[in-house]
Amino acid sequence: MIEVLYFAWVRERIGLPRERIETRAATVADLIAELSAREDRYAMAFADLASLRVALDQELSSFDAPLAGVREVAFFPPMTGG
Amino acid sequence: MIEVLYFAWVRERIGLPRERIETRAATVADLIAELSAREDRYAMAFADLASLRVALDQELSSFDAPLAGVREVAFFPPMTGG
Amino acid sequence: MRLVVQAGPFDLGAESTAFATGAVGAGAVVTFTGIVRDNGGTLAAMEIEHYPGMTERAIAAIMDEAQARWHLIDALVIHRHGRLVGGEAIMMVATAAPHRADAFAAAEFLMDYLKSRAPFWKKELGRDGASWVAAKDEDEAALNRW
Amino acid sequence: MRLVVQAGPFDLGAESTAFATGAVGAGAVVTFTGIVRDNGGTLAAMEIEHYPGMTERAIAAIMDEAQARWHLIDALVIHRHGRLVGGEAIMMVATAAPHRADAFAAAEFLMDYLKSRAPFWKKELGRDGASWVAAKDEDEAALNRW
What is the pTM assigned to this prediction? Predict the structure, then answer.
């Protein structure tokens, strides 16, 4: 079980801020493929990876990073703080 | 007649903050030579021109600048504000 | 070092005074305050979303990096989230150092990294609807100078 | 634009608040405050001499130059003269701009030019006597970046 969080327009497209997912995905990319195959709203949210960022356990990471031992995955657009 | 002002250690070496001087000096350099010839305290204050700055009518200027029409000359070390 | 993430407003003046007073030995204090522009009256409000937990971790890491790079006596980051209107302060950064070059460089570094590496997302609520603020290429490029 | 040359102290917090509040349309406000360092307790006081009249002219010219170079909404310079003790604020600069790059650049420009082109001279009154602060080569060199 993994906690998956969505922020900003990713959250809006998927329609929820977080969910717990049962998955055997080995990498972030595998998880994205699994979710995108599930429903259109996921496919739409993940359509353009260049405009997405991912954090694993609250650290910025990359799409080819392994999910082994990870408890929290977050997807969001590039940050616009400050 | 020209008003001559001294600041910081130039003022301390010459021993006064300002004086009115009757001069026919054509340039700042001429005025410095005239004052330096007058008394040792002036000669000491003007000994090292590289460590001196001059303002004519409150604008930074150079030692070869003409004094024609100038009402106020100020001598001081490099500024240390801020 | 002090780091505050909050929904409510902060008092720029009181924070600046407290920060400068507390930075014993400092010769230079720099503050930056980010303010919601109303874009000539077209912006009704701004909504700032953030990632609780990661926000604090990311800002703390950026502040640690600033302290490792420059000789700082103290640093402060305050960042708001939630709904703000035009003219309101979104965030502030303050740095204190013996010398001005360090205080300025660290403040600019903190701002550049907060812009692109702290998990905040701005949504503009205008008269014609709402839209997420897009990240600017120039903000990402700004990181390359450090 | 506002320019103040005075012997008495100023309130950094109140000035910052008033400046930011007045800068309508600004997205970024930067302040710099210069503070008397006590050099580990060896400095008893600092005496700042200035050239009344030229001081105001020189600072106004530097502020005009900053406004010509960057897109600023407002700028403020406060500089004290006379006797100050360790920990007291000597001067402050504030800039307001739509964008942060302009606010930062203008504040640094103002500081670099105030250091070397505004007619102030600092004398340190230490336990072992008084001495005029020497201008630093690096301060003169800092002007070359603009």
Answer: 0.96
